[in-house]
Amino acid sequence: MSDGSSFYITTPIFYVNDVPHIGHAYTEVAADVLARWHRQSGDDAWLLTGTDEHGQKILRTATANGVTPKAWADRLVETAWKPLLKTVDIQNDDFIRTTDVRHEVNAQKFLQHLFDAGHIYTGEYEGYYCVGCEEYKQPSDLVDGTGEFEGQPVCAIHSKPVELLHEKNYFFRMSTFTQQLLDLYESNPNFVQPESARNEVISFVKQGLSDLSISRSSFDWGIKVPWDESHVVYVWFDALLNYITAVGYGQDDEEFARRWPATHVVGKDILRFHAVIWPAMLLAAGLPVPTQVFGHGWLLVGGEKMSKSKLTGIAPSQITETFGSDAFRYYFMRAISFGQDGSFSWEDLSARYQSELANGFGNLASRVIAMVVRYCDGEIPTAGEFSQADELIRGTERRATAAAMGAVDRLAIHEAIAAVWELVDELNGYITSQEPWALAKDPAQRDRLDAVLFTAVRGLGTLAVLLSPVVPRATARLWTALGGVGDVADQRIDQAWEWTGGTHVSPLEALFPRIEATVG
Length: 520
Ligand SMILES: [Zn+2]
Hints:
Layout: E1 6-10, E2 14-15, H1 22-39, E3 44-52, H2 56-64, H3 69-87, E4 94-97, H4 101-116, E5 120-130, E6 135-137, E7 142-144, E8 153-155, E9 163-172, H5 178-187, E10 192-193, H6 195-206, E11 212-213, E12 215-216, E13 224-225, E14 228-233, H7 235-240, H8 242-245, H9 253-259, E15 263-267, H10 271-285, E16 292-296, E17 299-301, E18 304-305, H11 316-323, H12 325-335, E19 342-344, H13 346-376, H14 388-409, H15 413-434, H16 436-439, H17 446-467, H18 472-481
Parallel strand pairs: 1-3, 1-15, 2-3, 3-4, 10-16, 15-16, 17-19
Antiparallel strand pairs: 5-6, 5-9, 7-8, 9-11, 12-14, 13-14, 17-18
Helix pairs in contact: 2-3, 5-6, 11-12, 13-15, 13-17, 14-15, 14-17, 15-17, 17-18
The protein binds zinc ion (ZN).
């Protein structure tokens, strides 16, 4: 894990017309935590995110707003999506837009390659099309409309009528990859995770795959099919290619070889696109399939999936303005088992903020630093002899580091944080039982006091390094207050417990200040 090997991780690219909500921020934070963790583990980490900007719906909205689709997308990228990344401190290495020249040109190269190799043919397609989903729907994806759409079939996701379309299309021979995909899932059980997602994908593919219509001729906002400019590329086919065009596919072989393949973190609603269509496309092109496709669960608010149409959309800034970006990142990574559905509530967020961040971690840091100032004039003591209690803390530091690393390898971010929190809890218990304030009253206990404060400071340093990917702002401040050299984000996680302390502490404002306002 620490040999400088590539760790390329992607989020789904944002559908530019969406309104940012905490579900988008959740995916971004998870990928960002993983990227930061791997970077601090010595890997060649690379985090990609971006925007999906083609398709009929975007063309329609732009037209309705009296601007070109490109101008419409430009506006949304700058006013909605890049600000979202800032709100939750995403440290992405690249931001790709499907309207970037590097994407359009190289997506065309990919398509031409598949066409030349015989994986694409011309056919006729008739079917029900949902503009909201940008895809043809199977009869099983439709339900009976209600209210104003009574008597019409509607998309089960959008509750809006579908359109019956009939067009000449280019088709990708996806059906020919059915067995190769099943072999892939079988030989590499980690390819799709978690297990529930894997099982769903396998049973879907076992039914046999249809060929995929990959072009549209009824509108022109998209990448032109290189051998027939009257067609544009189906928006999903276009969008999936961002993961390779962003790292040099078609134009920079060295960069592409360095980065690809990637780990894809996706919501489970778009799992099939990533775990079925995408690897089939790559197999057709003779390219390596992704390292892993990990489908995370849905965020539920009041028992409903987060979405604007359900009126449960919560802007991430509503949370960060009160609690801060670190608390946002911590809460969603800690409270929800990554891969499972999870419920958000203001009460739960508030309770965890208070008990875990403010009282558990923040207060520990404040107390230890205040004692070093009071009893040692701010000079971090060196320890002579360690007691059994000190050695137990040492053991926990090593154990928490190893457990957290193992958990992150399985993308079990919640387990990694829980492992680190054992150290938070043990350090709090250690301070209570060792009573440094009592030791300080007895000059004969000076060596013991030094050993206790040294152990506590070193433990805080270990925590700062291990928690830096999750709460980067608080740990940067803590690291500085502990006299740590350099940036905490540059410290190696696999050696987190080896840090032995700086020379002096400096004052630390509360890492997680008390929040008085009622929220919700
Ligand atoms: Zn739909």
